């Protein structure tokens, strides 16, 4: 790759001239040209890179879209390899994990996340909806929510793992688009649960608030 520096950057008005302009800043704007013979590898964001590749296969038009990247120079020497490996491990060890509620809301591959969203958002399952489910990750304390979206997700994980005959930790190997039939299994399980428990059905149908069954006198069901 070659770096083409853009020089002669100076303030063009009085307001800009009052700003502190470090000397090095005048040398850090330019263009990086590549020959396409270079080798690039992801130090971080490997899943995003894989997602971009998959998206390009189904829609080549997005190839014209622009994204921001940080490019770190790599030297194919013993010292350079150590530097790159250290940068990789530092980025990945200290990166903040994605929260569970974010996974539930956005992940298009996670089986449990996709099924959980469909249980709440679609008309395929009549018992859960945005009015009777809490979207907070903590314990349910309000009077209207049957349970929380995180609790549904945790239980869906267990059901899916049971149906696939694997451990929960192994679910990452499976994709929802390849196992669409699992929704019916989970939906039937929850459906039978609601049908067998009149208290749950009353809350789901709006006949009672969940809080009525969440106290010391009439509680114990929700």
Tell me what the structure shows.
- The chain is mainly α.
- It has two domains: 2-93, no CATH class; 100-213, no CATH class.
- It is 40% helix and 5% strand.
- The protein contains eight helices and four strands, in the order E-H-E-H-H-H-H-E-E-H-H-H.
- It has helices at residues 14-17, 46-58, 78-93, 100-106, 111-121, 149-164, 182-196, 198-204; strands spanning 2-5, 30-33, 133-134, 147-148.
- Helix 4 (100-106) packs across helix 5, helix 5 (111-121) packs across helix 6 (149-164) and helix 7 packs across helix 8 (198-204).
- It is elongated.
Please name the defining characteristics of this protein.
two-stranded parallel ribbon, 4 strands, DNA_S_mod_DndB, 40% helix, 8 helices, two-stranded antiparallel sheet, mainly alpha, DGQHR domain-containing protein, single chain, 2 domains, 222 residues
Measured on Cα atoms, how large is the radius of gyration?
26 Å
Q: Order the strands across the largest sheet as they lie in space.
A: 1-2
DSSP summary, beta strand count: 4
Chain-averaged pLDDT: 85
Number of domains: 2
Helix content: 40-55%
Characterize the biggest β-sheet. Answer: 2 strands, antiparallel
Which parts are unreliable, with pLDDT below 50 for 5 consecutive residues or more?
A: none
InterPro entries: DGQHR-contain_dom, DNA_S_mod_DndB
Protein name: DGQHR domain-containing protein
Organism: Salmonella enterica
Pfam family, one: DndB
């Amino acid at each position: 790759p070659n770096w083409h520096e853009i020089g002669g950057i100076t303030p063009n008005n009085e307001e800009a001239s009052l700003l502190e302009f470090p000397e090095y800043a005048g040398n850090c704007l330019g263009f990086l040209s590549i020959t396409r013979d270079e080798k690039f590898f992801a130090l971080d964001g490997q899943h995003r890179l894989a997602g971009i590749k998959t998206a390009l296969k189904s829609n080549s038009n997005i190839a014209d879209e622009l994204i921001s990247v940080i490019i770190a120079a790599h030297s194919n020497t013993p010292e350079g390899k150590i530097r790159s490996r250290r940068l990789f491990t530092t980025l990945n060890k200290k990166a903040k994990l994605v929260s569970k509620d974010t996974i539930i809301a956005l992940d298009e591959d996670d089986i449990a996340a996709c099924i959980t969203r469909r249980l709440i958002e679609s008309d395929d399952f009549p018992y859960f909806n945005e009015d009777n489910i809490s979207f907070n990750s903590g314990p349910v304390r309000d009077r209207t929510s049957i349970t929380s979206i995180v609790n549904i997700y945790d239980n869906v994980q267990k059901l899916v793992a049971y149906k696939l005959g694997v451990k929960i930790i192994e679910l990452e190997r499976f994709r929802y688009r390849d196992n669409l039939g699992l929704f019916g299994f989970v939906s039937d399980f929850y459906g039978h649960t609601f049908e067998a428990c009149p208290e749950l059905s009353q809350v789901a149908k709006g006949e009672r608030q969940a809080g009525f069954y969440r106290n010391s006198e009439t509680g114990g069901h929700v």
